[in-house]
Each structure stands twice: as C-alpha cells, then as structure tokens.
Amino acid sequence: MSIAEDELMIGEGVVLDAGAAPVTLRMLSGAIDVLAYGASFLITVAFLSRASGSLNDAAFRAIVIGWIMIWLVLLPAGVETLTRGRSLGRLAVGLRIVRDDGGPVSFRFALARSMVALLEEYVTLGIIAVTTSMFSRRGKRMGDHLAGSYAMRTRGGRRALPPISMPFGLEGWAAAADFRRLPDGLALTARMFLARAASMHMQSRLRLGQQIANQMSEFVAPDPPGGTHPETFIAAVLAARRDREYVIEINRMRRRDSDSDLVRSLPFGVPDVEN
What we know:
By secondary structure, the protein is mainly α. It has helices at 23-51, 57-82, 88-93, 107-123, 127-134, 142-147, 171-176, 184-196, 202-217, 230-264, and strands at residues 95-99, 149-153, 178-179, 220-221.
C-alpha cells in the first residue's frame, strides 16, 4: 500500500490541497490561450508588415522577433503575474498556476514558463507539453519543471468528508491512551479508507483495514481492548486525534486572549477610564 506523503489533512479530514489539474483540462486551457495569443499575434504582425513596408527584410525580421518576445513571452508572463497564475484559458476551465509549495507565482516563475512555452506550445503545436504532462505526477509540462510550478484546480475540488464519531465503548481507552503524531499520509489513507469502506470488496476491505490498523498501532499505546475491530480502532484513533487537536487549539486561543488582555491592562490593578 502506498501512502501519499505530500498531502496535508487537518483533524476534520479536509485535504488542504485543491489537487493538480488533469492533463485534459490543461490541454483545453492551453488551446484557448494559444488561440487567444496566437491569433492576436498574427493580426498585429499583419498590421506591422503594412506599416513597415519601406523596411528591408533584416529590419522586418528583427521587429518580428522582438514582437514575438513581447507578445508571446512578456505579455503572457505579465498577465500570469498580475492575475496570480490565471489566464483566459485557465479562467474558462477553472485552473490556476501556483508554485510547488502552493504559493502564488512571481514574474520570474511566469517568465520561465512563457519562454519554454514558445517551444512546447507554439513550435511543436503542444506535442512536447502534452507528452511531458502525461508522464508527470502533477501534470507538469517542461516549463513547470523548470520554474517549479504546477496547475491547480480552483473549481471542483475535493469535498470535506463526513466527521467521525468516537466508537461506543472506546471512550475510556481513548482518553487514557498515549497518541504519537500520525504521519499525514497515514492519517489521510485511514480517513479515505473509512469513507470508502462500504463500497469496497469484503476481502479487500478486511485486508486493507487490518494493514492500516497495524501501521497505526505503532503510534498508539496501549493497544485497544481485545477483540476490537480494525475499522473501529482506526475510527477511534482519528476521532481522538481530532478531539485532542481541537482542545489544544482552544487552549492556545484562550492563552492568546489572556495575554492580550494582560498587555492592554494598566499596571497595579488601576482601572482604565473611558474617554
């Protein structure tokens, strides 16, 4: 069983990642952008050719090369920077370019992507971009690998899973047990298993549940009461983990408010006077 280590999940079972965009959506958004920038580029070049009819071929080629850099490199990079990773095609299909750590891209990232896009999307008609994206885990093209970015879905993200309740009879054990921090990948796998267990084949459900329970038992002491079903044990661990994180956060907020009130108060118990 493989466990995804690059996804984070809070105690309520919500994955903090909208997910990388599939190749099909990237192809559609890329086609819209290529049509928008490519068609407008050809129209402007036609006007330039008429306006510079008196220039020789070398001067006209220099103007066209400069116009390519402006219209197909600098303009897309500027739009991507100002819109925080969006473009006309990405707005249409619900995508956004972000850094590998999930942050917004800067002009440096957008410029690297736009320069490589000349080869990937325009020269090879998208063949290199599609091929590279198909063999990438996050659907990255060459420009994304160079810049350290990927396309993230902004619409149609994952829904929050229903909350887990503490199984009956394990409340006392969970209150006294010692829980080490679960790896995020293991917690996510266990949460998704409970959400999909009812639709799984019985043998696969038993085998996978026992495997997850065995891995989780390494982070819990003492073991649950004898005869506890693996799925019940998994649900108890996740519920206890959520409840303890909630209590820790509540206590932290109370301490913060108490410290804030202490800082704002006058010394020696002198009451403040309202003006």
